[in-house]
Write a structure and sequence with these properties.
The chain has helices at about 10-25, 35-40, 50-60, 65-70, 90, 100-115, 165-175, 235-250, 300-320, 325-350, 355-370, 375-385; strands spanning about 5-10, 30, 45-50, 70, 75-80, 80-85, 95-100, 120, 125-130, 135-140, 145-150, 155, 175-190, 200-205, 210-215, 220-225, 260-275, 275-280, 280-285, 290. With about 400 residues, it is an alpha+beta fold. The protein binds adenosine-5-diphosphoribose and P-hydroxybenzoic acid. Adenosine-5-diphosphoribose (APR) binds near residues 8 and 11.
Length: about 400
């Protein structure tokens, strides 16, 4: 087997990269170790920046997003007694969309299986090899148990945080990583109940952070801060709704409750690995970095990476110019660090930990966001997505 770009991992990063390259006449093969059903059922975040939406629409995979996605012009910031709306178009001329990452993945898989390049599910033993040479390859075992070799010009490691690509880059390039596991986790639920607010509510509360989000006019997505040692079995639906009701309490407003269809506890981590390239192996998305979900940046960062990477590979493989490939890692990392900072800042502002001094500092920052247009604009610009080269 031979292709121009061998792509490891069929998450949003790998699937979108394949699509963007296909549109520019570059051949790809995508190798995924899970099943299609598994990949399409994974529940992740659900906020798309304007640039992400534009990229998906331009790539011809935005029809359902345009029909079913919910445009949001802002978010609500809450602390006891106050719920303040930030108006994004007024602050920075952009908005965001609510559309689940699960739906983005379904749309990309459908497009790829319809008229796209090969996408192989349930492969195993995937190994990028000889990435320092001009002729790298990926060895793997196909779904029938037959060993295969995929010869490539370039390998893209879009295989997420637990993938096989990052260790090859780190070892080969002598790279380094930065990591922090935050001292709190999110308990997330999906519930069959219409969202209780028109737009997302980020709420600071003495008991801990809570976030009200949604997936559609009839499905709510809610999160509450818990200790990372908590077990989901100890959280009955009633206990979850009680916690959420307390943390969102506001005079004249009520949290609607309903049947919980999914619940899980998510760890919170900040992680960056540099460089994002070694030889002909390029990393993009969660393979290279993880942000805590508070800023809704994970998926958007993956889309920004592959947008830069697609441009770089098109230039290399069709025009023979390596300039964009050579600057890919530095350009992507500049944006990664900006998003890592924004996500860390949102996370540290809203989550209870530390002592009462920390709490007062958090509240002071929130009050500043609610009273100063300058402070609010900085949040709005980052939340809705900064320009690609940031
Ligand atoms: N071989 C083949 N595929 C693999 C391997 C492997 N050895 N290891 C992992 N994969 C697959 C995973 O099963 C997954 O489908 O790679 C894919 C990686 O996808 P994601 O984890 O979704 O990562 P990415 O595409 O970078 O998307 C980033 O996902 O985790 C969220 O918050 C994150 O929203 C962000 C987005
Ligand atoms: C979500 O809807 O899952 C979501 C929304 C906003 C965030 C994180 C997650 O900041």
């Amino acid at each position: 087997m031979r292709t121009q770009v061998g792509i490891i991992g069929a998450g949003p990063a790998g699937l979108l990269l394949s699509r963007l390259l296909q549109l520019q006449g570059i051949d790809t093969v995508v190798l995924e170790n899970r099943s299609r059903e598994y990949v399409e059922a994974r529940i992740r975040a659900g906020i798309l920046e304007q640039h992400t939406v534009q990229t998906l629409v331009d790539a011809g995979v935005g029809d359902r997003l345009q029909r079913e996605g919910l445009p949001h012009d802002g978010i609500h910031l809450q602390h006891p007694g106050v719920r303040h709306h930030l108006d994004f178009p007024q602050l920075c001329g952009r908005r965001v969309w609510v559309y689940g990452q699960t739906e983005v993945v379904k749309d990309l898989v459908a497009a790829q299986l319809d008229d796209g390049p090969p996408l192989l599910f349930e492969v195993s033993d995937v190994r990028p090899e000889d990435v320092e040479s001009d002729a790298p390859r990926i060895r793997f075992t196909d779904a029938d148990g037959v060993p295969q070799v995929l010869e490539c010009d370039v390998v893209a490691g879009t295989d997420g945080f637990h993938g096989v690509s990052r260790p090859v880059v780190t070892a080969g390039a002598g790279g380094r990583t930065w990591e922090r596991t935050h001292p709190y986790a999110w308990l997330g639920i999906l519930a069959d109940v219409p969202p209780s607010a028109d737009e997302l509510v980020y709420s600071w509360h003495p008991d801990g952070f809570a976030l009200l989000s949604m997936r559609s006019p009839s499905v709510s997505r809610l999160y509450l801060q818990v200790d990372p040692t908590e077990r989901i079995e100890d959280w009955s639906d009633d206990r979850i709704w009680d916690g959420l009701t307390t943390r969102f309490a506001l005079d004249g407003w009520e949290l609607r409750t309903g049947p919980v269809t999914e619940k899980s506890i998510l760890p919170m981590r900040s992680f960056v690995s540099a460089p994002m390239r070694h030889g002909r192996l390029f990393l993009a998305g969660d393979a290279a970095h993880i942000v805590p979900p508070t800023g809704a940046k994970g998926l958007n960062l993956a889309v920004a990476d592959v947008t830069l990477l697609a441009q770089a590979l098109v230039r290399w493989l069709t025009e023979g110019q390596t300039d964009l490939a050579d600057t890919y890692s530095d350009r992507a990392l500049a944006r990664v660090w900006r998003s890592t900072h924004f996500s860390w800042w949102m996370t540290s502002m809203f989550h209870r930990s530390g002592d009462d001094l920390d709490a007062e500092l958090q509240l002071s920052q929130l009050r500043r966001l609610c009273s100063s247009e300058t402070a609010a604009r900085e949040l709005a610009e980052n939340y809705t997505g900064l320009p690609l080269d940031t």
